[in-house]
Amino acid sequence: MAVSLAGAAQAQEQSTDAQASVQAPAEPVSERQASEIVVTGSRITTSGFNAPTPTTVIGEEQIAANAQPNIFTTIAQLPSLQGSTGASTGTFSTSSGQQGLSSFSLRGLQPIRTLTLLDGQRVVGANVTGVPDISMFPQLLVKRVDVVTGGASASYGSDAVGGVVNFITDTRFEGFKGNILGSITKYGDDETALVQAAWGKSFLDDRLHVVVSGEYDHEGGVGAGDFGTDLAGSRDWYRATTLMNTGQTNNGLPQFNYRDYAQPYQYARYGLINNGPLQGIAFDANGTPYNFNYGSNGQPLGNGQVSNCFRGNSFCEGGDLSGAPGSGASLKSALERINGYGRIGYDFAENNEAYVTVNIAQVKTDNQPSPGYNRGSLTVQCANPFLPQLVRDRCAAAGITSFGFGSANASFPDPRVYTDRKQYRFVGGLKGKFDLGGTNWNYDAYYEHGITISDIRVRDIVLQNRYVAATNAITLNGAIVCADPVARANGCQPINIFGNFAPSASALAYVAPHENGPFQHTKLTQDVLSANISGNPFDSWAGPVSVAFGGEYRREFYRVNADPYGAGVSDISPNSADYPADPLLNSTLGSNWAAGNYKNGRGKYEVYEGYVEVDLPLLNSDSIGRANLNGAARATHYSTSGTVWTWKIGGTWDTPLDGIRLRAVTSRDVRAPNLSELFAAPTVTTVPNFNDPFRNQAVQIFQNTIGNTALQPEVARNTELGIVLSRPSWLPGLSLSFDYYRIKLDGVVSTLSADQIVRFCFDGNQAFCGGFQLDGPQGTNFVNVQPFNLASWKTSGFDIEASYQWQQPLGLPGNFTLRALATHIQKFIVNAGIAGVDPIDQAGNNAGATPDWKWLAVQTYDSDRFSLTVQERWISDGTFGNQYVVCQTSCPVSTGNHPTIDYNTMKGAFYVDIGATFKFSENLQLYGKIDNLFDKDPTASPQTNTGLDVNPALYDTLGRIYRAGIRFNF
After folding, report:
1. Are residues 331 and 957 in contact, defined by beta-carbon separation less than 8 angstroms?
2. N or C: which end of the chain has fewer CB within 10 A?
3. pLDDT digits over 773-808, tens only?
4. What family does this chain come from, according to its entry (predicted)?
């Protein structure tokens, strides 16, 4: 049964299949099966070992019952996983490069602190943060997934701070099987087609084993909607909910107000005069001027502000929302993935195998981050020939020659982001057993070479300076042209921004070159050489002593090339003919695009490490039970930061009380800085009025955002205490577990602002004094903004897991299984490590990834011909942020640490899924499933802008989904 497993000894009491799935009855195992069990929580694989670290197991039957096109979704539903990323997250972003990236996050510690393995082996990262993409795994061959909810760095190395997710494949599969799945939402989108097939066969008297698999998955995605509040399909839950900033901090009223239908008053769908005596004149689709309908009964004040509206972030409530861009972002990236996998294993001796695996995969996504191009700070000349005569006359009457103007540019093509990730992974290894001095030993050694090629392209994003030049038009020799002669000489074509007038093809090619827009080409490589040996060298008074030891070498490398308009001039820039020189653009610093300013860079590091792990039986008695002590130590040398030690010590006690086991473990774990943090491609921003505290004057600086090769590994202390009730004689179908955890993470990599870096130095902290210059010649002053080991996190809580299996319930054939898992986060304190910034407890922050409670419950009835599964998912109510002080009147002074707010409750969610399978025969199954049966809408997650106000990491944003498919095997 897939309950919280302590280790191999517990697993011995049931078959491998039963261990992997709650639907399967418990059966005895053969001696061979018991010896083959590998427990992810430890490197020790001998059958008598009880691991102190809790491990939740999801088996292939449960994976199949959940009927997802990507196994990632099934695992991410576990309560201990918080903040995982997938196709529904990251869709609002243009430049992150993480669209469609499926990666796990345990304990809310972010994906970079969860180690994800394939058959116990590392996988090359899918981007420069080092996290792999689960979409690229051979999913049909997965037998089970082990989720270790605790620090495992001493056993597995860096990144296992939150825990380990290990995918175990069927390396000896024989036969042919397949799966065909189709799905669609209630709203007629995200049409999905999944085709999977696998074949395996043994040759040469069962000594040669060949396994191949392939899969194709097409997911149509959801989005985008339109401006205003119109979402994709007929979804009607978006209300442009925003935290309105009054700008007042000490008037006794809350600074932030929770409001629906936030209207930005700096721009409108087809243009709005937002400053000067003509403020409030907008333009309709035909270019006809009209008086803009401000919400909140607002009236323009002529100075860029609007009465009765919220000055702090320039919003009114209600009114004309047609220019608000939030609803235009995709709810889910469209995704296409192709995966091919092959494995050849040869038993060169009994219980000894040499093998080679090849995994080649491609994942392509696209999404729309937001519609149009929102520009609220244009200066328009009254002489602009596109401007209606009525407005020109008003200019003359007001005695002005220009005015401030903002537009959502709804006539522009909507931007889209396209990602294309290709992965090539090759593994060769040896595994088996040998006898030394009368003792049996297990060994496992492998070499892995992985390559990821990632390309990101952004279409229909404007070059900002060209856009400004194209909007500034004049009449010259009877023709409307760009006013700037330099821009005209370089191909500028004028654009009419007063109405729904699509730019001409030539004007659009100048402002937003479609084929030659922002792009980033990244190559990552990973080489791993690993060897592990385990055995029982001798017996103690209580049983065999188990030992595991080994070593690993790893090399990580990346190189990224970007377009010169974004990255600036570089010797690795692409063909300059595609990006011709333009005096309007900054050729040296780049950053010319409105979004998607990727940079060039490269970096590498190497890792050498060795470890030893020992399991010592302490007790073996019917009267006092069985107990063991487990300890491990690992020395790791990073080429960038030196040597660091990790360790763990823990144990289990099978008490004489029927079915009760106690377990405990404490460990020191690390996460080494990743390639992005160490060698981030530099970006440069000009800051014209930077405050120099040393001379008390404003200076112009270049802000260089760079990596930091001096970063040290983050260090965590992880402690867990647990109690397990496992199939007591008085109720043999019952299993329960309760585990308390506490994690303290120091030296968390975080980034300071330029002002903070200089201020820390000014206050006497010499560690920050080497990265800036403020008193050099004109044009040479700079501040390097880079990550430091500053922050610390503390989190604690507990996991509860329960399952019960009832055979032949009420006399019916088959089995009825109940399973429930829950995680409660008691606290999640983030200390930025910055003077003047208070620590914040993020437990219960539903706008983030750490709700107070998250649970999953599954009920399954399974007979020979039919199975029915009902699943419930629940997250508790929370807040928008625990830093806020809630008040209505008599509010305290609102501060940066503790701003005041009038409402701070973010409702949780309860989802019900239901699925069924009909077995025509042992070889053919028809299945169907409905996710989010009651079409529960997401709760608003308001920000201080008009972005899409949802949190897809916690809430379902797609609505009811219908799935159906067929499985077969021969």
Report:
1. yes
2. C
3. 998 887 788 888 889 999 999 999 999 999 999 888
4. Belongs to the TonB-dependent receptor family.
Contact criterion met (CB below 8 Å) for 634 and 649: no
DSSP letter at 415 equals P
Confidence of residue 11 (pLDDT cuts 50, 70, 90): very low
Neighbours of 388 (CB within 10 A): 17
Closest CA to 410 of 242, 531, 566, 270: 270
Closest CA to 738 of 754, 725, 747: 725
Q: What's residue 45's pLDDT?
A: 56
User: For the chain, what's the residue count?
Assistant: 970
Q: Report d(CA 198, CA 168) in Å as an integer.
A: 15
Q: Which two tokens stand for residue 316?
A: 């009114």
Q: Which residues of 29-56 are buried (b: 16+ CB within 10 A; e: fewer)?
A: beeebbbebbbbbbbbbbbbbbbbbbbb
Residue 653: half-sphere exposure toward Cβ, Cα within 13 Å: 14
Specify the DSSP class assigned to residue 757.
Answer: H
- Within 8 A by CB and 6+ apart from 960, the residues are 185, 186, 930, 931, 932, 933, 934, 935
Burial of 909 (0-12, 13-18, 19+ CB in 10 A): buried
* % helix, strand, coil for the chain, step of 5: 10, 45, 45
With the C-alpha atoms ordered 304, 309, 311, 313, is the resulting torsion angle positive or negative?
negative
Cβ partners under 8 Å of residue 944, min gap 6: 242, 243, 245, 256, 313
Q: Which residues contact 631 (CB under 8 A, 6 or more apart)?
A: 613, 614, 616, 647, 648, 649, 650
> Residue type at 201?
K
User: How many Å apart are CA 636 and CA 310, to the nearest integer?
Assistant: 54
pLDDT at 859: 96
Cα torsion 695, 700, 703, 708: sign? negative
Look up residue 218 and give its DSSP letter. E
Q: Indicate whether 722 pLDDT > 80.
A: yes
From the number of C-beta atoms within 10 Å of its C-beta (0-12, 13-18, 19+), residue 699 rates as middle
Closest to 359 measured CA to CA, from 63, 135, 58? 135
Non-local CB neighbours of 479 within 8 Å, separated by 6+ positions: none
> Under DSSP, is residue 567 helix (H, G, I), strand (E, B) or coil?
helix
End-to-end Cα separation, the chain, in angstroms: 26
CA 254 to mean position of chain CA atoms: 33
CB of 669 closer than 8 Å to CB of 153? yes
Q: Which residues contact 209 (CB under 8 A, 6 or more apart)?
A: 171, 172, 200, 201, 202, 203, 343, 344, 345, 346, 347
- What are the angstrom distances between the C-alpha of 720 and each of 5, 531, 651, 652, 657? 14, 28, 11, 12, 22
Give Rg (Cα) of the chain: 30
User: What is the percentage of the chain residues whose pLDDT exceeds 90?
Assistant: 73
Per-residue CA distances from 620 to 21, 137, 527, 544, 721 (Å):
30, 42, 43, 11, 21
Burial 180-216 (b: 16+ CB within 10 A, else e): ebebbbbbebbebbbebbbbbebeeeeeebbbbbbbe
Cβ 518 vs Cβ 461: under 8 Å: yes
For 91-126, write each residue's pLDDT tens digit. Answer: 877 777 788 899 999 999 999 999 999 999 999 999
In terms of pLDDT, which residue wins out, 888 or 686?
Answer: 888
Which residues are CB-neighbours of 620 under 8 A, at least 6 positions away?
541, 542, 543, 626
Give CA–CA dist 809/815, Å, rounded. 7
What residue spans define the domains of the chain? Answer: 48-225+331-370+417-458+519-563+598-969, 262-323+374-407+464-511
Q: Is the pLDDT of residue 571 over 70?
A: no
Supply the CATH classification number for the domain 48-225+331-370+417-458+519-563+598-969: 2.40.170.20
